[in-house]
Amino acid sequence: MSWSREKTAWAFVAPCLFVLLSVAAWPLLRTIFLSFTDAQLEHMSGAKFIYWENFKALFSDKDWKQSVYNTLLFAACSVPCETLLGLFVALALHKPFKGRGLLRAAVLVPWAIPTIVSARMWGWMLHDVYGILNELLVRVGILSAPLPWTASPELSFWTIVMVDVWKTTPFMALLLLAGLQSLPQDCFEAALVDGVSKKRIFFRITLPLLRPTLIVTLIFRTLEALRIFDLVYILSNGGPKTMTMSVYARRYLVDYANVGYGSAAAVCLSLIVALITILYINVGRHRILEER
Amino acid sequence: MARSSPLRRLGFGLFCSIIVVLCLFPFYWAMVSSLKSGTEIFATDLWPKALTFQNYGTILQDASFGRSFLNSTLVALSTVGMALLLSITASFALARIPFRGRKRILLAILSVTMFPQVAVLSGMFELVRFFGLYNHCSALILSYMTITVPFTAWTLTNFMREIPKELEEAAIIDGASYLTILVKIFLPILSPALVTTGLLAFIAAWNEFLFALTFTLTNQARTVPVAISLLSGASQHELPWGNIMAASVLVTLPLVVLVVIFQRRIISGLTVGAVKG
């Protein structure tokens, strides 16, 4: 029985594994290989092995350093913002009330809208001359003059952070709300009976219990933030102040047809992503694959 | 809520309304802008003075936009179909059959979902060219497997773990094969989970941009996100905003409808992998 069981299991997994190996593992290995060559887009097969040249060139390029910095700064600003706001909203919504379904549906809309489309919508709302946001802020008196939200290199970085927070906070709130709802209710009831203050309940009971959920969502969000591409591609003018690692890698790979160099950048991004994941998992001491 | 004061309730209502407005306003504004005519789009009225469907006319008459809409639908549906087909048996084995190497496979699947897409870009480019699929919709279906298959396999595995063990134990004692158990017992119970997972994979494929931008070259093969990103006027500063907003509304509308209908299921699908994983 056990031999046939193992065989059946592998037969069941095989097609899926085969596809994953050929569309994920193989291209990844090829990318790593190509990062050590001088491959060009038009003749990839005739590539010569040039050892660490691409990486050397990459590490001495100040645009690359800037895009690493931008990406890390983007993740460091957007993810905590989204998590804190999301937690705040989730706590507020963690009770039954009328119209909850409607609210939930509304909150899902920013998440479901294609990133390209939301970038376009915000690009229009933030237009420096005709944008409604400038108009509103000036009329209310918060701004004295319209701001060039997407045209100014310095400001467009923060615009991208803002749009990302808009797109992702509701989603974070929903995940955290689901986490809150799955917590055992009896400790809260016991604490309330004992007259523990709400603040104390939050820091001593809710937060520790919610920690696994928080860490998993934080990991996923951070990794997503590190590979940001779409928003930057549409909302920025492509200058170095807003360039992220994904944008940089794709630009060299496709636009400049320098596959070897672009692959080297992609490999570095992957290494950074892997490093941060390992860091998170160790700090959080959370085993994602824990059997229930 | 029973003991809260009217003032608190009012504050809570206000808070909820602000969230709804913040979430929906950009979409509302795109809709309003797309219904404005000519130069009126540059005025910031919250409602158009004269409703016009001129922008939608322009977009819908544009053959290339219709084509990209069709491409998006085709690519997303085929991707979802293939991803589900591949994941059903795999996730059954991963969730229900104890075998050596299971944990490692799960970890591998999870790490693929976490990987940046750019990391496979050059290898995928090679693969696409090797099969002669460059500038062809099939290139997108192939490359979207990288994103959707790990996701559907992971999510379905988590859904299957939630089904009580007693269900199949009786069948195993009766000597039923795993395939029979999967087809006769699991699939009927799992159909809501399949719909949910398929829906999420559909949204992911419908919204994908990086691969679609890289592996297509002409309007023949483009998907809607790429088409929208490339809509431009005579110069960089004369973007046809009315058309862009109309196209944005058209591509978002199906998603908004899906979200409103399936909101409960979508949330269960999103949380089964992330929260309880």
The gist of it:
The complex is a heterodimer of chains A (292) and B (277). By secondary structure, chain A is an all-alpha fold.
Residue runs with pLDDT of under 50 for 5 or more positions of chain A? none
User: Any idea what the CATH architecture of the largest domain in chain B is?
Assistant: Orthogonal Bundle
Order of helices and strands of chain B: HHHHHHHHHHH
Proportion in β-strands of chain B: under 5%
Q: In CATH's first tier, which class of chain A applies?
A: Mainly Alpha
Do you know the CATH topology of chain A? MetI-like fold
Structural class, from helix and strand content of chain B?
A: mainly alpha
> On the 0-100 scale, what is the average pLDDT of chain B?
87
- The second-level CATH architecture of chain A is Orthogonal Bundle
Derived from helix and strand composition plus strand pairing, the structural class of chain A reads mainly alpha
What portion of the residues of chain A fall into strands of 2 or more residues? under 5%
Plain-language structure description:
The complex is a heterodimer of chains A (292) and B (277). Chain A contains twelve helices and no strands. Chain A is mainly alpha-helical and 292 residues long. Chain A has one domain (62-284): MetI-like (MetI-like fold, Orthogonal Bundle), CATH 1.10.3720. The radius of gyration of chain A is 24 Å and the shape is globular. Chain B is mainly α and 277 residues long. Chain B folds into two domains: 6-42; 62-274, Orthogonal Bundle (MetI-like fold), CATH 1.10.3720.10. Chain B is built from eleven helices and no strands. The two termini of chain B are 32 Å apart. The model of chain B has no long low-confidence stretch (mean pLDDT 87). The interface between A and B is large, with 99 and 96 residues.
